[in-house]
Amino acid sequence: MSEEIKDTYKTISQPSEEILFKEKNSKFFGYAFPVNSEEEVKECLEILKLKHSQARHFCYAYQIGTENMVYRVNDDGEPNNSAGMPIYGQIQSFDVTNILVVVVRFFGGVKLGVGGLISAYKTAAQMAFEVSDIIEKTIDVHFVISFDYKNMNKVMRIIKEKNLEIVSQKMELSCEIEIATRKKNADQIFDIFNSVYEIIIKKKDSL
C-alpha cells in the first residue's frame, strides 16, 4: 500500500496576543505572526520596531513553506545561538510553519549569561505559542482549466461533484477556471479533467 500523502500543516490563525516574560529586570515581549513570505516578515518587524523604539534586541525566527521549508534565525546582537535558535526550537516543538516569532528584549541592567538568555528566549517564544490559536490547514494544488464556453456544463458538473474550490474564473467564449484541491486528490482530479474531450487542464506553479 502506498504511503499516504501528507497534505496538512499547522500554523496560527492570527497574530498572537503580546506576552511579557520578566527575568532579572530584563523584559521579554513575545509575539507570533502567521506569514507567507519574507516580505511579510519584514513588515511585522518594522511594526514592532516602531512600537518598541527603545528596545535593544529584536530576536526572531521564522519558517515558511510546507514541502521546501525556508527558515531563518536572528540573534540581533545577543550572543550567538542564545536567542534565534531557542525561538526556532519552539517553532519545531509546536510543529508549525508559515510562522514568525519575535521576542523583543528590554535590557534591565543585569546580565543573564548565555544560559539565562537561552532559557528566557525559549520561554517567551513558548508563551507566545500558548496564547496563539494553532490551526490545521490543507496543502492545496491549483489547476487552471481552459475550455470553450459550450463545455461549461461538463466542467461545472465535475467541480460540483468533486466539491472543488473555484479560486478565480474568466467566462467568455473561451473560459478559464482556476480550481484548488487537496494535494492527495490532485492526481485523480487531473486525470478526470484530462480525460474529458476539448478540456485542457494544467497545474499552476505554486508561488
UniProtKB/TrEMBL annotation:
SUPFAM superfamilies: Ribosomal protein S5 domain 2-like
Domain of life: Bacteria
Bilayer-crossing regions: none
Domain (Impact N-terminal) ranges: 24-128
A Pfam family this chain is assigned to: Impact_N
PANTHER family: IMPACT FAMILY MEMBER YIGZ, IMPACT-RELATED
Assigned protein family: Belongs to the IMPACT family.
Entry protein name: IMPACT family protein
Species of origin: Flavobacterium ponti
